């Protein structure tokens, strides 16, 4: 999208998430909007780049490397590059967060 162009962008719905891959829009950051029901989560995986989790609502357990972190919103966490991470909604309401991938594309290795 050329500078100065301001167009609405359709985001791709994938199960409990909505995804934006920056490369398709000429930017170097991607993100996922998470709306995860209780008991659901994302299994361990890694990225070649850091991922920032902005937890807006809910309660979840995050695994980052060898640490387990109990998180109640609002809170921000960082999954460093090449460090296994994942999370599970352990609360009784939906987990809402924004996951910022410091990459123009999603590059994920599932463990």
Outline of the structure:
About 0% of the residues lie in helices and about 50% in strands.
Give a topology summary.
Blueprint: E1 12-14, E2 17-20, E3 30-36, E4 41-46, E5 51-57, E6 59-64, E7 67-72, E8 75-79, E9 85-89, E10 95-101, E11 109-110
Antiparallel strand pairs: 1-2, 2-3, 3-10, 4-9, 4-11, 5-8, 5-10, 6-7, 6-9
What does this structure look like?
The chain is mainly β. The chain contains no helices and eleven strands. The chain has strands at 12-14, 17-20, 30-36, 41-46, 51-57, 59-64, 67-72, 75-79, 85-89, 95-101, 109-110. The strands form two sheets. Strands 1-2-3-10-5-8 form a six-stranded antiparallel beta sheet, with no helix packed on it. It has a five-stranded antiparallel beta sheet with strand order 7-6-9-4-11, with no helix packed on it. β1 and β2 (17-20) form a beta hairpin. The protein starts with 11 loop residues before the first strand and ends with a strand. The model has no long low-confidence stretch (mean pLDDT 92).
